[in-house]
Design a protein that fits this description.
The protein is mainly beta. It has a single domain (about 1-30, about 40-145), classed as Jelly Rolls, CATH 2.60.120.10. It is about 15% helix and about 35% strand. It has a six-stranded antiparallel beta sheet with strand order 1-2-3-10-5-8, with helices on one face. It has a five-stranded antiparallel beta sheet with strand order 7-6-9-4-11, with no helix packed on it. The radius of gyration is 16 Å and the shape is globular. It starts with a helix and ends in an 8-residue tail after the last strand.
Length: about 160
């Protein structure tokens, strides 16, 4: 039942996000083939940019351009200041994901939350302790993780 609820949230959230930007969801093309994947059938791969994280591609190719994927992030993961070249949309399914412009102002997002981040937005992110985070991610371009060096205040 829990898996059904999680996948329903992803499907409904994806449709809502697609409507928001005025284009169809990846599996909703007129006359296209529907995308139907059981969570237990996902093929997980290690994310080279971030040790311990995994992804399962649903559509597209995150190494080349636009994509959709599921992501798993271990509980207690902290990502320091960084950016991504393109816009990312995340729908949190389980765990508590956090993000913000710095650690002090980062907000927590639990299951059902939607986080849309513009390209080149400098931020921290991660998965709070307690349970691993699983989320649906849609990228408008190639996935990248670009660390940002914190600058000391100018005196």
């Amino acid at each position: 039942m829990r898996l059904f609820l999680m996948l329903t949230v992803v499907c409904l959230s994806t449709a809502a996000l697609a409507d928001e930007v005025g284009r169809p969801a990846p599996s909703a093309k007129q006359g296209g083939t529907p995308l139907m994947v059981s969570f237990t059938d996902l093929r997980w791969t290690a994310l080279p940019e971030r040790k311990g994280m995994q992804f399962a591609v649903l559509s597209g190719d995150p190494t080349k351009g636009a994509y959709t994927q599921m992501r798993k992030v271990p509980a207690g993961t902290d990502n320091p200041l960084h950016t991504h070249s393109s816009e990312l949309k995340n729908v949190i399914i389980s765990g508590v994901w956090y993000t913000g412009t710095d650690s002090a102002s980062a907000r927590d997002f639990g299951p059902g939350s939607i986080v849309v981040m513009p390209g080149d937005w400098v931020h921290v992110s991660g998965c709070r302790s307690g349970s691993d985070c699983v989320f649906y991610q849609e990228g408008t371009g190639k996935f990248d993780f670009k660390p940002v060096v914190e600058r000391s205040p100018v005196r």
